[in-house]
Amino acid sequence: MKYPLLFVALMGGAAGPALSQCCGYGMSYDNVTVWPQPNLHLPGAPEPKYKKPPLVTAPPNVQANARALSMNFPPDKRAEMEKAFILSMDIYLKVEKKMGWYPRDLAGGLATFVVGNYMVLKNTEVSDEAYDAVTRQFRAQDKLRDMLKNNAPEKVRDVFEQSAMIGAFMALTQKSLKQNPQPPAVLQNLHNAAAENLKLVMRTDPEKLSIDITGIAK
């Protein structure tokens, strides 16, 4: 996954110190509860199960969702983190286009959350091929259609945007650490946040997860 240096500059500025103080990077518990429990035995097959992916239909609400996520940070860092999450969504939309996905494909947002947190947890990179395989894994699951059917469009929109923001933020953070090393306390906090995020949505020990060109498995 390739990203511009703009986020690297942001991480070296006011947002950087906030990382050591943040209590977490996750969505509200209310949003996490609508996540479908992923079936990790389903491979990221190249042939889609459905003709069209599950799409988010509610209008974008990026600033409000970025502001909601920024509330996890100390008051004096929230404005910077709101900007960081807005930037993260902008980067996600560019990646979405680069990968050739349908605009606002729900599977892409959820996969980005998993991949971004995995990168931080494992201190590693994830190839475009593996990232796409995880997205196909999510896209093929019936539970994503159930998520659309059983929740208000605005709720699905918020989960999609917050998932994409957090995932892109974590992936960008991992990328930036190579050029802007952080103190051990910051690195540990990032690791803990990534582990907690993955544990909440994957319902399994995140340390046992692996991602490769076949998708995510444990």
Strand order, main sheet: write it out: 1-2
Shape: globular
Number of helices: 10
Major sheet size, sense and barrel closure: 2 strands, antiparallel
Could you name the ranges where pLDDT drops below 50 across 5 or more consecutive residues?
1-18
What count of structural domains?
1
The arrangement of helices and strands along the chain is HHHHHHHHHHEE
What is the number of strand segments? Answer: 2
SS-derived structural category:
mainly alpha
State mean pLDDT (0 to 100 scale).
Answer: 82
Helix amount: 55-70%
Radius of gyration based on Cα positions: 16 Å
Q: What's the end-to-end separation, in Å?
A: 22 Å
Query: What is the strand content?
Result: under 5%
Q: What does the model show?
A:
This protein has 218 residues and is mainly α. It has one domain. It is 58% helix and 3% strand. The protein has helices at 6-11, 15-19, 29-32, 62-70, 78-99, 106-122, 128-139, 142-150, 153-176, 184-202; strands at 210-212, 215-217. Strands 1-2 form a two-stranded antiparallel ribbon. Helix 5 (78-99) crosses helix 9 (153-176). The relative contact order is 0.22. The model is unreliable at 1-18 (pLDDT under 50).
Give a short summary of the structure.
This protein is an all-alpha fold.
Keywords summarizing the entry:
disordered N terminus; 218 residues; globular; two-stranded antiparallel sheet; mainly alpha; single chain; 10 helices
